[in-house]
Amino acid sequence: MATQVDYYEVLEISRTSSAEEIKKSYRRLAMQYHPDRNPGDAAAEAKFKEINQAYDVLKDEQKRAAYDRFGHSAFEGGGGGPGGFDFSGFGGGGLGDIFEQMFGDMMGRRGGQARSGNDIQTQVEITLEEAFSGVKKDVRVITRVACESCHGTGSGDGEAGVQTCPSCHGAGKVRAQQGFFIVERPCPTCHGAGKIVKDPCKTCHGEGTVERERTIAVQVPAGVEDGTRIRLTGEGEAGGNGVPPGDLYVHVAVAEHSLFQRDGANIYCRVPLRMAQAALGTEIEVPVIDGSRTKVKIPPGTQTGAHFRLRGKGFSVLRSSARGDMYIQVTVETPQNLTKRQRELLEEFETEAGEDVKHSPEHTGFFRRVRDFFEGTE
Question: Half-sphere exposure (CA, 13 Å, Cβ side) for 187?
C-alpha cells in the first residue's frame, strides 16, 4: 500500500497553525507548483494536486478535526475508526460517506458512490487592476473528460452495450442491515453507476473517461477579494457511464500592487511630500485605481501621517455599482545632499524659528514634557 503523506507536511505547516497561516502557505505552494509555471513537469503537477488535496481538508474546520483524530481513514475506505469500528462496512467511503449514506436522502441528495465526477481545484493569479474591473482568464487543468471513443459510455459497443444493473435495477445503491440500522451503500455490482458494461471500451477500459488537459475560461467578477473561491458547475472531472461531471473550484490570488494597498472596498496610497511642499501647502496629482488621475489640495503645515479622503475613488464592490473611498497617506521627506546655500537657508530658518511654538508645535510640546518629566523625578 502506498505511503500517505501527512497533510500538514504537504502544506509545510504545524498542527497548531491558524486558518490564516494554512491559507498563506497554500497560496505560496500553489503558486510555486502551478502547472502554468512548470509546463511539462509531471512531478510539479503531482505536487500541485497533493497540495490542493491537503488544503481541501485542512481549510475546513470539521474535516480538519476529523483528520486530526482519525487521519486519512476519516476520508478513505478500509481504515479503522474510533474504538476499532471499521468504516469500510459503509461502502468504503470513509467517515464523510457514513453521514452521506445515513442522512443523504433526508437532505435531498442521491445515494451511491458515483453521484457525480470528482471536483477539481486550481488557482488563478490576477492584478489589482483586474480585480477592480473584473477579467476573463483562461486556466489550464489536468482532468478526466468523457472518452471520445465510447462517448463516455465505457462500452465498446456504445449505448447498445450498456445495460441496467440487475442487482440494483439501475438505482446505483442497495440496502443492507447494520445492527439496528438499514444502511444504503453503493451497489457492489455496478459500483454505484446503475449500469454495467459487457464489452469495455479499449481506450478507457470501461471507465468512460480519460485524462486530458483542458483550457477553461473563468470570468472573475469586479470587486473580487484575494482568496475568493469561484465555483464552475460541471467543469470538474467527468463521471463516466452517464454520471454527471463534478465542479471546478478556482482560487483567486490577487497580486500586490506597487502603488495601492487595498482594505475591503477602500484603497490607500502613500504619497511623499518635500518639506517645503508640506510647510507651504501645495496641490498634487495622484493616480486612481480606475486609471484616471485626480488632484488633492495639501494645506500649509501638513505633517507626516496626515490622511486625505477621496470619496468614491476606492475599490469596486462585488455585485454592486458602488465604490469605496481612496485615502492619501502623506509622508514628509527630509532633504538630503544639501548644497552649501541650502544649508545656509535652513540654518537661517532654524535660528529665526528658535523655540517659537508656532513653527514646530509638536517638537516644542514634546521637549517641554521631557523637561517636566525629569524635573518631576528629581
Answer: 20
Please state, in angstroms and rounded to a whole number, the distance separating the CA atoms of residues 65 and 218: 32
Contact of 146 with 208, CB cutoff 8 Å: yes
Report the candidate in 161, 185, 164, 165 with the shortest Cα–Cα distance to residue 174.
185
Q: Is 187 annotated as a binding residue?
A: yes
E-only strand ranges, 256-355: 260-263, 266-274, 282-287, 293-298, 307-310, 326-333
pLDDT per position as a tens digit, 174-219: 887 666 677 778 888 777 777 788 788 888 888 888 888 999 999 9
Residue 340 vs residues 7, 15, 275, 350, 356: alpha-carbon distances, Å: 64, 62, 18, 15, 26
Please list, in sequence order, all residues whose beta carbon lies within 8 angstroms of the beta carbon of residue 210, skipping any fewer than 6 positions away: 144, 145, 147, 148, 203, 204
CB distance 58 to 8 below 8 Å: yes
For residue 209, the cross-strand partners are: 146
Regions in the chain scoring below 70 on pLDDT: 1-3, 75-115, 177-180, 241-242, 355-359, 363, 378
What does DSSP say about strands 326-333 and 266-274: parallel, antiparallel, or unpaired? parallel
DSSP state of 82: G
Per the DSSP assignment, residues forming a β-bridge with 333 are 274
Our separate counts of H helices and E strands in the chain read 9, 15
Tell me: is residue 168 an annotated ligand-binding position: yes
Residue ranges of the chain that CATH labels 2.60.260.20: 116-256, 257-336
**Does 269 appear as a known binding residue?**
no
Under CATH, which number does the domain 257-336 receive? Answer: 2.60.260.20
Place of cell 473561491: 229
Could you name the CATH architecture of 116-256? Sandwich (2.60)
